[in-house]
Amino acid sequence: MNTGQWLGLITGVLFGFLLQKGRVLRFDKQIGAMLLKDMTILKFMLSAILVGMVGILLLSNAGIITLSHKPMNVGAVLLGGALFGAGWAVMGFCPGTSIGAIGEGRWHAVFAVIGMVAGAAIYAELYPLFKSTVLAWKDFGKIGLQETIGISQWIIVPIFWLVAIALFILFEKKKI
C-alpha cells in the first residue's frame, strides 16, 4: 500500500470511530433524522462541514491542494438525491453509516451495502441512456458558491458558521 492508501485507511477508520462515538450509526437516530425529531446526525454532519470547510480552504490557499468542482448538473442532482434519499429511507442507513453498522456487528446493514453496489452497477449499465436524457438537463458547469454569488470565500465561511451555530442553539433549546 502506498502513503495515500494508508492515509485513506486511517482516515476511514477514524471516521467510523467518530460515527460510532457520535451515535449516528444507531437506527433510532437515522429514523429521528428523517422525521426531523432528532438532529444528532445533522449536528454531526454540520460539525464535520464546519471543520472541513476551513481546513480545505486553508490547504487550498496555501497551495497544498487544488480545488476542482464537479459540474453542477440539475438532472444528476435530482436523480442522485432521490435515489440516495429512497435508499436511506428504506434501509435506515447512508453509505458511511451502513459500513459503520457492519463494523458494530449489525449484519442487516449488509443488505444496504448490497443495494448500493447493485445500484451502482445498474447506473453504470444505464449510463448511456442517462447521458442523453437526465444528464442532458441543465448543466451549470464547474461552479461553486463563491463564483455564483461573487463573494469571497472568507466572507462566506463566517456567515455559514454563524448560521450553523444558530441552528445548534435552536436544536439545543428544542432538545432535538
Walk me through this protein's architecture.
- The protein is mainly alpha-helical and 176 residues long.
- Helix content is 71%, strand content 0%.
- The chain has 8 helices and no strands.
- The chain has helices at 3-21, 27-34, 40-61, 74-91, 95-103, 110-132, 145-149, 153-173.
- It starts with a helix and ends with a helix.
- The mean pLDDT is 90.
**Shape label:** globular
Strand portion: under 5%
Classification by helices and strands: mainly alpha
The helix tally amounts to 8
Oligomer: single chain
Radius of gyration of CA atoms, rounded to a whole number:
18 Å
Instruction: Determine the N-to-C terminus distance.
Output: 43 Å
Fraction in helix: over 70%
Tell me, rounded to a whole number, the average pLDDT: 90
Largest sheet: none
- The secondary-structure element order is HHHHHHHH
* Total beta strand runs: 0
Low-confidence runs of at least 5 consecutive residues:
none
What are the key terms here?
single chain, 176 residues, mainly alpha
Q: TL;DR of this structure?
A:
The protein has 176 residues and is mainly α.
What's the structural blueprint in terms of helices and strands?
Blueprint: H1 3-21, H2 27-34, H3 40-61, H4 74-91, H5 95-103, H6 110-132, H7 145-149, H8 153-173
